[in-house]
Specification:
By secondary structure, the chain is mostly helical. The chain is built from 17 helices and no strands. Helix 4 packs parallel to helix 7, helix 5 runs parallel beside helix 8 and helix 10 packs across helix 12. The longest helix is centred in the N-terminal third of the chain and has 33 residues. The protein is globular and about 60 Å long.
Length: about 400
């Protein structure tokens, strides 16, 4: 496994540098390299590495979400709060239900099967979206209307809605008694519980950091350990209550920035350095999960279904930003930023097949195809249109 790790680090850095030199997002190079090295093409990665893939990808997500929390100021969040909440649910609901209905006619699915597919595909990828938004926040790109903060906050909650509704439809298919109304009510509860846990943890950390002298490196280790523990609590209690633990992870960073801004600035720098390592693991291991042979099975019908879903999602973004101070170019940038799929689709795309859903192979094929199509388009689009749709604000603005 250590050999595979060394291979990923060396080739991942090279792929990142090459794509940046070609003026393309570095994450795209790492994602495609992961596909190439993965078990479905060259098969150069150790099976033990692939078995640990889920935990390693989660660790990388925790690192970038902690960094995200350390980069969101309360004033900016207050200005985008309502719009961010709308962006967190309306686009995903539009896309998920559009795919659910259209799949009835294009694939002969039942509405429940369509809902399973729709809310697998509907989840936006924080792995692709969050890193560039943090970069824009640091450079004050789009700062006038807090566009990067808006997208970052909305995309981070989007997955909660998608995964909850996916679970609801999967339960309905399995013949379990699932109350959709209660499932929907569970979404705000999971958000509140996740943020509440993060708040409690962050208050304890602030008390520790103000009472005792602890070096920044040790603070990073403590925060990372506690954040991992939060996700473990979510897994332990999953059968009884849903907890959006990743929102709790972001909350830790947010409260530290609010209460200890100087300490938070130092910690953000430390997490930036860790992210240089973690992003290679994240994007290459996501790529390694992609079976391009399965994706090809989805064919033109899969492409059409994904395109219809993205069109519906774009309408949802427009509806969510209607009546806001955002310019038309900023709204278009929000649409582009909400395109990429990757993390959730790689994590749950195969679940219906493993549970014996007859259409599970088709669902998996379309989920994989959505990664191959939207992750590159979204990553390139974010990079390209940020320069054409967002303005850089000076510090005095």
């Amino acid at each position: 496994m250590t050999t595979s790790l060394a291979l990923m680090l060396i080739l991942g850095m090279a792929a990142n540098a090459l794509f940046v030199k070609m003026r393309l997002p570095g994450l795209l190079g790492m994602l495609l390299l992961g596909v190439l090295l993965g078990p479905y093409v060259l098969n150069w990665l150790d099976p033990d590495m692939l078995r640990m893939s889920g935990d390693l990808r989660l660790l990388a997500l925790i690192i970038i979400l902690l960094r995200a929390g350390l980069g969101i100021k309360r004033e900016a969040l207050n200005r985008v709060g309502v719009t961010a909440l709308k962006l967190s649910c309306i686009p995903g609901l539009c896309e998920g239900f559009a795919i659910a209905f259209v799949s009835i006619y294009l694939l002969g699915f039942s509405f429940i099967e369509g809902g399973i597919l729709g809310f697998i595909v509907a989840a936006v990828s924080p792995a692709v979206v969050v890193p560039p938004m943090l970069n824009f926040i640091d450079r004050r790109v789009g700062a006038k209307n807090n566009v990067p903060t808006l997208i970052l906050a909305g995309a981070s909650i989007d997955d909660v809605f998608a995964i909850t509704l996916f679970s609801a439809f999967l339960g309905l298919y399995g013949g379990h008694h699932v109350n959709i109304g209660l499932q929907l009510l569970g979404i705000p509860l999971s958000i509140v519980l996740g943020i509440g846990l993060g708040l409690v943890v962050s208050i304890v950390l602030v008390r520790l950091f103000t009472t005792y002298y602890i070096r920044s490196t040790k603070k990073v280790m403590m925060i990372l350990g506690v954040a991992i523990f939060l996700t473990a609590v979510e897994k332990t209690l999953k059968a009884r209550v849903e907890i959006a633990s990743l929102l709790g992870v972001m909350t830790i960073g947010f409260i530290l920035l609010e209460k200890m801004p100087e300490v938070a600035a130092k910690l953000a720098g430390k997490f930036n350095r860790i992210w240089l390592f973690a992003e290679i693991l994240l994007f290459m291991l996501v790529g390694a999960q992609v079976n391009i042979h399965v994706a090809l099975d989805a064919g033109l019908t899969g492409l059409l279904l994904i395109a219809i879903g993205l069109a519906a999602r774009s309408v949802g973004v427009v509806l969510s930003t209607f009546g806001t101070p955002l310019t038309s170019r900023e709204r278009f940038f929000c649409i582009v930023s909400y395109l990429p799929k990757a993390t959730v689709q790689a994590a749950i795309g195969a679940i219906p097949l493993s549970m014996g859903v007859p259409s599970g192979d088709v669902i998996l094929a379309i989920a994989v195809l959505s990664i191959l199509i939207t992750a590159p388009i979204g990553a390139i689009g974010i990079e390209y249109f940020s320069k054409r749709c967002l303005e850089v604000e000076s510090e005095s603005a």
